[in-house]
Automatic annotation (TrEMBL):
It comes from Arenibacterium halophilum. Keywords: Signal. This is Lytic murein transglycosylase. InterPro entries: Lysozyme-like_dom_sf (IPR023346), MltB-like (IPR043426), MltB_2 (IPR011970), Peptidoglycan-bd-like (IPR002477), PGBD-like_sf (IPR036365), PGBDSf (IPR036366), SLT_2 (IPR031304). SUPFAM superfamilies: Lysozyme-like, PGBD-like. Residues 1-20 form the signal peptide. Residues 334-390 form the Peptidoglycan binding-like domain. Gene3D superfamilies: 1.10.530.10, Bacterial muramidase, PGBD-like superfamily/PGBD.
Length: 390
């Protein structure tokens, strides 16, 4: 699910916010949205029809506040999401929709394993697409004030889909955050990247696998996916490797990494001139990967590091990679311990963002800084021992 605000919308946002501020009286908020919609060129009749019966959905806010699954470490999270059944069904779908995937790879350069992994994780290959009313979810989240800059533009995108006859405000359903269809795309992404993959004259992401997969491929291409390039590869790291060089912040050519003794655990490393980063999601004693430029495109779809790592890894499994070597990583922190750690890091002047118990990029960077200060291995993996030292 992509969470970006285009430049044009960013420029328009102050004016829009002045007309429909988040929070406050919900009825007045809706009136403000209606005025904005009319000013954007929609007819009052269309606007009234779109917003008729709109309501706040407390279940959406509850789901937004309860994303505890992203607190899981990579090994636990990946084992939870990847099963033999899910892998087998992915391979079966690769054969069933081979013509669609061939066209996607030809037109957009996105490898089939990548889209199959998204399809699996987002909706279990279309089986569970969410039953939240999409319009109500978007309006609820835009009114909530936590991330209005993300969700307000999606309301008007949904209104535009409604004008085209591709959105029913009373019946269109999806995920709690407003994503629709088999690969869960937000309304604006559907407007910009929707593809009629089955040739029926409509972009129907809920019922047409061809439409959903083609649209997902086009969106990834628009986000910068490079045709024919890898995204993630498990590696073997030599003894004595300088772990301070690991992390997404450090990029070197594949040839440079090879010169340090890094090898592919299966097959060969990518072209020597391709930039890459060494990632150890659970520290130097756990599995280790080389992340190529396409890996960063994943963060335009979902900004959770553990989700991105797992989706990228599963894509490689769907295309023949072996199960990663889990190693024997040091024990990590519980959710409450992670919050405690984030509080201590913040008190030391580190910007860890929200204290939410999730090991995000800012928290990893702060952990690395403290590991360096304390003279311990700088791998970005927080442990009870580190917490104790702080």
């Amino acid at each position: 699910m992509r969470k970006l605000l285009s430049l044009s919308l960013a420029l328009l946002l102050p004016a829009l916010q002045a007309q429909a501020e988040c929070g406050g009286n919900f009825g007045q908020f809706i009136d403000g949205l209606k005025q904005e919609a009319v000013q954007q060129g929609h007819s009052p009749e269309q606007v009234n029809a779109f917003f008729r019966g709109v309501r706040q959905d407390p279940a959406v806010l509850k789901a937004d506040r309860a994303q505890g699954v992203f607190q899981k470490p990579f090994i636990e999270f990946s084992r939870r999401l990847i099963s033999a059944d899910r892998l087998n069904r992915g391979k079966a779908n690769a054969q069933k929709y081979a013509d669609v995937f061939n066209q996607i790879e030809r037109d957009y350069g996105v490898s089939r394993g990548v889209l199959l992994a998204f399809w699996a994780f987002e909706t279990d290959y279309g089986a569970f697409q969410g039953d939240f009313n999409t319009r109500d979810a978007l309006v609820t989240l835009a009114h909530d004030c936590r991330r209005p800059e993300l969700f307000r533009p999606q309301i008007f995108a949904a209104l535009e889909l409604f004008r085209h006859g591709d959105f029913d405000p009373a019946r269109t359903t999806g995920a709690w955050a407003g994503e629709i269809g088999m690969v869960q795309m937000l309304p604006r992404d559907i407007l910009e990247n929707g593809v009629d993959g089955d040739g029926d004259g409509h972009v129907t992401l809920k019922t047409s696998a061809a439409d959903a997969l083609m649209s997902g491929g086009r969106m990834l291409a628009s986000l910068g996916w490079q045709k024919g390039q890898p995204w993630l590869q498990e590696i073997t790291v030599p003894a004595g490797f300088d772990w301070s060089l690991s992390g997404l912040e450090e990029t070197r050519s594949t040839a440079d990494w090879a010169a340090m003794g890094i090898t592919a655990r299966q097959g060969q490393l990518a072209d020597g001139g391709l930039a890459a980063s060494v990632l150890a999601p659970q520290g130097h004693k756990g599995p280790v990967f080389l992340a190529y430029p396409n890996f960063r495109v994943y963060f335009e779809w979902n900004q959770s590091f553990v989700y991105v790592m797992t989706a990228a890894y599963f894509a490689t499994r769907l295309e023949g990679a072996q199960v990663y070597d889990a190693g024997t990583p040091d024990t990590g922190l519980s959710g409450s311990q992670m919050k405690d750690l984030q509080g201590k890091l913040s008190a030391r002047g580190h910007d860890v963002g929200k204290i939410d118990g999730i090991l995000g990029a800012n928290t990893r960077a702060a952990v690395r800084a403290e590991q360096a200060r304390l003279g311990i291995i700088v791998d970005g993996w927080p442990t009870p021992a580190l917490l104790s030292k702080l």
